[in-house]
Write a structure and sequence with these properties.
434 Repressor (Amino-terminal Domain); Rossmann fold; homodimer; DNA-binding; Transcriptional regulator (chains A, B); LacI/GalR-like_sensor (chains A, B); Lambda_DNA-bd_dom_sf (chains A, B); about 325 residues
DNA sequence: CTTGACTCCCAAAACGTTTTGGAGAATCTT
DNA sequence: AAGATTCTCCAAAACGTTTTGGGAGTCAAG
């Protein structure tokens, strides 16, 4: 219950001086500054956040929208990432609020609410679509934001993304080098940038190798989606001998499908995300993941720099993809 | 960029009237109210959150501290829970901020910062300890809060918890009924309430059955902790034939230990939390979990009621534990 | 014509900070 | 000794709401 006013009164100083002393301004003498600081410490004074926010015209808040509908919120690392991001933002005086999207509302509605109510200084967007209305909205409003994943927006915007194209191209070429010729792709919904990007990587590799690109099935980015897509590919007259899956969850679903089909256990498979449970599937799932330490810190840094006004072009990070080799990609090329 | 002032000016009304019209007070005529609402809609007016918070003396924020050190943040459901909680809080105009604990700071420091800076209206605490300084601090400050997990605090406080005692007692009795006599317990750090509670449940069952309670090993609530604890129990002259593990993560570590030891694959095991990856271990891990739909909504409801001033006694939820039977608890009682 | 009740509206005072634009005293310059 | 500069401090004005305590009108009852 400590006010600036009360603190000032108890010290026989003006509010102004106390405020400036605590903020370390040079126009208050060293001795008063010390006196004020001690008194503030003693009563445990902390400036009222709402008042400062109002005066400073800063919300001291960043929001991250949590998509609820399609399936999952993303890899389990996701919470770790948010936690790291929140920690680094906190060091700069910003807090991270999580904004799930209730049924019946769009992510755009949420953005609008946060932005128009001046509740946030910036936003963090995940699961970007190729054409993402949230991005367009925030750009039109001039609110700083960073996305996890690129978009096809005309204006550049800050993002962190994995190079899915290169990763999936490399994975496909690796299967080719191992002798595979019928390499299928289990794709995520193509409206998502990451799904499209990974699909393009597979397609590019197939074309480079002079192979047909018809072994592609799309599904929801969930186990069930991968399961159904795999069944579809296995029904083809000429089955794939290897599968490149857009996500680990889909790959795990595909593994289930392979178990149900004659000779399915001879088909190689690789996923993406490095889900912890991939180490426990049978066979253990080979996968890929984005490189980079402490992603949360990177997001926080980009957010802070975006708030500081740095141009978007300088706030884009494209990370390489690395393989996480376990067993599922090692099945012989001819057996299926 | 829409102010109440600007909106009022454009309508030829006073700020007061516009504000009250939007809030639906009866002392503004129906026609003006409509007129005001239309104009507000048109310019997309949203009250400035900071200003309202200052005036109302409400932060419109709830913080949840994310423990970072011991191991994990909890089950993967955790993010879903937070998301559900945030969604229901949002319906009441509150946002949820996540507050990870940086290295070198205690959770208490974080609480203090949020509380003394009047940044939050309430707090959500997870991973309670038996004697939890955060709880004591918040109680002394009179800030509403809800914990995930009980404590041994003298004053009652709102919580949601699973009945670990009953669950672990039942699991142990079930092993006994299946013929097991040497039933071990892999315990979590006893400073945590949940770990102590579960240990007590196991111990109670053992005593009811007239069995010795020396087959107990404690470890960090992580895979590695379970692994080491299991090795310790397996070194005993008289090995356990069944293991009741405080968490699934520890159980998965214990499974690894069992694989490395002669005859270990004949020892039954059960965990707690229902981690998704438990379905993929070999054998698939039998486990337990707290009953209850949409936990996040329950937390949100308790938080709102705590803010509204309901007494703590009425804000305590103890949920039953249910078994999730897979294969790992079915090994024969005599074989080990 | 007065009184009281009722309806619709508003000026002004908060809420607790930060920041602007000096004021007064002391010190330095010339 | 006058002017310039520096050093400390402060009163007052924001920031944009919500809320308090009325103030005009209108109307019906006395």
């Amino acid at each position: 219950m400590a006010n600036l006013k009360q603190l000032a009164q108890s010290l026989g100083l003006s509010i102004t001086t106390v405020s400036r002393a605590l903020d370390g301004y040079a126009d208050v003498s060293a001795s008063t500054r010390e006196r004020v600081r001690e008194a503030a410490d003693k009563v445990g004074y902390r400036p009222n956040a709402s008042a400062r926010r109002l005066r400073r015209q800063r919300a001291e808040l960043v929001a991250v929208t949590l998509p609820s509908d399609p399936g999952h919120i993303g890899p389990p690392h996701f919470l770790d990432m948010l936690s790291g991001c929140a920690e680094h933002l906190a060091a700069a005086g910003l807090n991270l609020v999580i904004a799930p999207v209730p049924r019946g509302e769009s992510e755009l509605d949420i953005c609008r609410r946060f932005v128009d109510g001046r509740r946030v200084d910036a936003m963090l967007l995940v699961r970007t679509k190729r054409k993402d209305e949230r991005v367009e909205f925030l750009q039109s409003r001039g609110i700083p934001f960073v996305t996890n994943g690129r978009t096809e927006s005309l204006l550049p915007h800050p993002y962190i993304d994995g190079d899915g194209f290169a990763g999936f191209r490399a994975a496909t070429l690796r299967f080719h080098a191992a002798g595979h010729r019928r390499i299928g792709h289990i794709a995520g919904p193509q409206e998502y940038y990451f799904a499209h990007d990974r699909c393009r990587g597979w397609r590019a590799a197939m074309e480079e190798c002079g192979l047909a690109t018809d072994l592609c099935a799309e599904g929801a980015p969930l186990e069930q989606g991968g399961y159904l897509a795999a069944l579809e590919l296995l029904r083809q007259p000429s089955r794939p001998t290897a599968l490149v899956c857009a996500t680990d969850e889909m790959a795990i679903g595909a593994l289930r499908a392979l178990r149900e089909v004659d000779g399915g256990n001879q088909i190689s498979i690789v996923g993406h995300d490095d889900l912890p449970m991939g180490a426990f599937t049978s066979p253990p799932l080979s996968t890929m993941r984005m490189t980079g330490e402490n992603l949360g810190a990177s997001f926080a840094s980009l957010l802070l720099r975006a708030i500081a006004g740095e141009p978007a072009e300088e706030l884009q990070e494209l990370h390489a993809i690395e393989f996480v080799d376990r067993d599922s990609h090692r099945r012989p090329a001819k057996a299926a």
